[in-house]
């Protein structure tokens, strides 16, 4: 005989985990979009750039995204060739997270 105990409503933190992740990705993309890619490089969160002179394989991705948002395709490619795929991948992830949230926690008002 199957267990007929009711499933408790999800905790508030669990309920908004998909939206929180999507908001973080979108905020990161927005911050990269509004940064000045031609500005002085003051600080990097990449520990490889602290140790190695040329940084790591991901260095330049933020600049590439900033150039791409401004329509500077060639500068974006020179900064990092994977800037456009990175934007597409992150946007696809955000859409997936919104769909999961709607599928699991859709609230019908009427």
Structure description:
With 110 residues, this protein is mainly α. The protein has a domain at 61-110. The chain has 6 helices and no strands. The protein has helices at residues 12-15, 17-34, 47-51, 61-69, 73-79, 83-105. α2 (17-34) crosses α4, α2 (17-34) packs antiparallel against α6 (83-105) and α4 (61-69) crosses α6. The mean pLDDT is 82. It comes from Pontibacter oryzae. This is DUF2752 domain-containing protein.
Keywords:
110 residues; mainly alpha; 60% helix; DUF2752; DUF2752 domain-containing protein
Uncertain residue ranges: none
Return the average pLDDT rounded to an integer.
82
Taking the sheet with the most strands, its summary is: none
Helix content: 55-70%
Write down the Rg: 20 Å
How would you classify the helix and strand content by structural class? mainly alpha
Shape: elongated
How many DSSP E strands?
Answer: 0
Q: Strand portion, in percent?
A: under 5%
- Write the H/E string, N to C: HHHHHH
Task: Measure the end-to-end span.
Answer: 35 Å
Determine the number of helices (DSSP H or I, runs of at least 4 residues).
6
InterPro entries: DUF2752 (IPR021215)
Protein name: DUF2752 domain-containing protein
Pfam families: DUF2752
Organism: Pontibacter oryzae
